[in-house]
Amino acid sequence: MDIIFLKGLKIDTIIGIYDWERTKKQTLILDFELGYDIRKASQTDNIEDTLDYKALTQQVTAFVEPSQFLLVETLAEEICALILKEFNTPWVKLTLNKKGAIRPKVTHAHWTHQPRKQYQPRKKHSFEPHCSRR
Question: What is the pLDDT along the chain (134 residues), one digit of tens a residue?
């Protein structure tokens, strides 16, 4: 198994639990590590035989930009579930940087997330607090 690294995807979205976070978009910076077998692509030199980075970043951006999650943890689970479902990758590791998450003392807060197999993405995105795993 090979590892594909995608680093520095910036997406502006509404995220957070505080009143000021619910009215102003914040920039999230996402880094991905994705398990992928690149042997076929290396032999054929054909884009269709590898992970389409452009399609992945476009789908993640299209999902994150309009979202309004309260918790970064929920957003991270949902992003990973999307990637696992849509991009034929056996695993994904996501590092999410929410700059300015803890004002004024901390300049960057990072979360690194690897989803568990039993996680099921939320069927309805109500953007309400979510505390239990199904």
Answer: 899 999 999 999 999 999 989 999 999 999 999 999 999 999 999 989 999 999 999 999 999 999 999 999 899 999 999 999 999 899 999 988 887 655 555 445 555 666 655 545 555 444 333 322 22
- Which residue in the list 98, 99, 105, 123 is annotated as catalytic? 98
pTM for this prediction: 0.77
Give domain 2-113's CATH number out of 3.30.70.1150, 3.40.50.2300, 3.30.1130.10, 1.10.3720.10: 3.30.1130.10
The torsion angle over the Cα atoms of residues 44, 47, 51 and 53, rounded to 10 degrees, is 150
Whether 99 is catalytic is: no
CA proximity to 75, closest of 133, 125, 134: 125
